[in-house]
Amino acid sequence: MQKKIKFTLGLVVVAGALIAGGVWKTRQLAGSPLLISQQTIYTLPAGSGRVALEQQLEEQHIIPDSFWFGWLLKAEPDLARFKAGTYRLTPGMTVRQLLQLLASGKEAQFPVRFIEGQHLTEWLKTLRDAPYLRHELKDDQLSTVAAALRLSPDDTEGWFYPDTYLYTAHMSDLSLLEQAHQRMVKEVSNVWESRDAGLPYKDQNQLLTMASLIEKETALSSERGIIASVFINRLRLGMKLQTDPTVIYGLGDRYTGALSRKDLETPTAYNTYVIPGLPPGPIAIPSIASLQAAAHPPVTGYLYFVANGRGGHTFTTNLASHNRAVQVWRTLEVKRAAEAKSAGSAPAPGAAADSQAHDAQTPSAPSTASGADPAVKGQDKKTANEK
């Protein structure tokens, strides 16, 4: 009898030791750091069980091969309630922290930045390159976006709020665009309600269109309002806006990087050298600063502006003064081109395009708001002004 008791006690002791050893091993595994040395994105497919999870983590060298992983999930059931998804793992994270993250369902978020001043087609290319995003748009045409989001053609270009947006894996490109569109609709509505009285806008689309012109003309916050005042003054006097970015937008794929007199005289729906008033819609996605400038322009007498060679513009009230400012700019560009040539480097962008500028800027040329600004002959005005 005593032998049986001793044998039983021995078994109990051995079992207790094994259990204690198992508990220690599982706790040691739970507290051990992951094998990763840099941030890692891990995707747990839907329907994965405990065995599949362990196999994936080991095969991807996230955790070490261990007999005790299954024991850990049994010993701590809360850690076994993992959810499918894509997660961000960081160096120093322990096995327990990994399992807690999988159980929380807090998937990794990825940023995508929509930049003001760009065209919607450029945003669509950004979305194409965004990792883990689900693409529902079949192409990068504005008409495709309009149809997918049930927008009218006038509510496509420009009607998206520039910002950095966060998304999780397998979120759709359309859902991000819908967020940006709804934010811009709300912002434009708020600005429209608080706009100055007497502005020559028929509707919110024209306000947004003006903001897009401002956005493409200058990057200087100090100039946005003055640019707006020039366009407002010209609209009130019945003068054509004659701003180069509208010509470039109207040309679309036909724009080769240089504007000629023929381009300025070629009719398009957006060419403000030809059409009166504002173009039918925005030519880019404006910033909130440009939207505010369009809604609250200062009172000035300016009707013209031209690049001053220092990243900004010279504003004038009459054509004679404007032509003198243009000549100052040209002289500066010729000087810069000569200095660049003597130094053996490429000439300044504006200087390289000066022949195009001169063709559109002769004294007999039409009077223009930006004077067929030589800063943009051969390039987008944003680039010319270091925007």
From TrEMBL:
GO molecular function: lytic endotransglycosylase activity
Pfam families for the chain: YceG (PF02618)
Regions of compositional bias (Basic and acidic residues) in chain numbering: 378-387
Enzyme class: lyase
GO CC annotation: plasma membrane
Chain intervals for the UniProt region annotation (Disordered): 339-387
GO biological-process terms attached to the record: cell wall organization; peptidoglycan biosynthetic process
InterPro entries on file: MLTG-like
EC numbers, comma separated: 4.2.2.29
Keywords: Cell inner membrane, Cell membrane, Cell wall biogenesis/degradation, Lyase, Membrane, Transmembrane, Transmembrane helix
Superkingdom classification of source: Bacteria
Reactions mediated catalytically: a peptidoglycan chain = a peptidoglycan chain with N-acetyl-1,6-anhydromuramyl-[peptide] at the reducing end + a peptidoglycan chain with N-acetylglucosamine at the non-reducing end
Compositional bias (Low complexity): 340-361
Site features described as Important for catalytic activity, chain residue numbers: E217
Summary of the function given for this chain in its UniProt record: Functions as a peptidoglycan terminase that cleaves nascent peptidoglycan strands endolytically to terminate their elongation.
PANTHER family named among the record's database cross-references: ENDOLYTIC MUREIN TRANSGLYCOSYLASE
Family under the similarity heading: Belongs to the transglycosylase MltG family.
Stated name of the protein: Endolytic murein transglycosylase
Species for this entry: Tatumella ptyseos ATCC 33301
